[in-house]
């Protein structure tokens, strides 16, 4: 188990566009496993590679539901629908929370750790977490979408992404 260090805002890498992954090797598997350990260690529901200093289009999401860990490599959004407004946080902004409006439904396609394409549909909080992480791969931070910042007392048991 290797917990990596989380890159905090305002580190420039968080605002850069990440590069697509083209090599699916043991190094990638190790990276995905380390990302998982890091996300769990810091109590997150998602983590993108730039958040551990790696400028590649890799992100994971795990909201602790029956879907388990969703590993997204070179993800693309195929479809979105609806709207939801809810509090959001980010492991790169400890203690900062704000309301963000996002689609309520998303359909993505991505590659798994073996380089195989899959599609995945999500709604509600899972869709939010997926969209938050994909934004990271384009250097888009949740703070650019916050409509209202919230005090920590207003939120109980909210997870960071
Ligand atoms: Zn984040």
From TrEMBL:
It holds the Pfam family Pep_deformylase. The keyword Zinc-finger does not apply. The active site is at residue 133. Fe cation binds at residues 90, 132, 136. Keywords: Hydrolase, Iron, Metal-binding, Protein biosynthesis. Its cofactor is Fe(2+). This is Peptide deformylase.
């Amino acid at each position: 188990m290797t917990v990596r260090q989380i890159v905090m805002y305002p580190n420039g890498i968080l605002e850069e566009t990440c590069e697509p992954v083209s090599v699916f090797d043991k190094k990638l598997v190790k990276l995905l496993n380390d990302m998982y350990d890091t996300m769990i260690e810091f109590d997150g529901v998602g983590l993108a590679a730039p958040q551990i200093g790696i400028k590649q289009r890799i992100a994971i999401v795990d909201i602790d539901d029956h879907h388990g860990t969703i590993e997204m490599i070179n993800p693309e959004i195929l479809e979105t629908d609806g709207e939801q407004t809810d509090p959001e946080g980010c492991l790169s902004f400890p203690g900062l929370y704000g309301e963000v409006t996002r689609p309520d439904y998303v359909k993505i396609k991505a590659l798994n750790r073996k380089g195989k394409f899959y599609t995945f549909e999500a709604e509600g909080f899972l869709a939010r977490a997926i969209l938050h992480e994909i934004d990271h791969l384009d250097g888009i931070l949740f703070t650019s979408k916050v409509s209202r910042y919230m005090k920590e007392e207003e939120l109980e048991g909210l997870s960071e992404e």
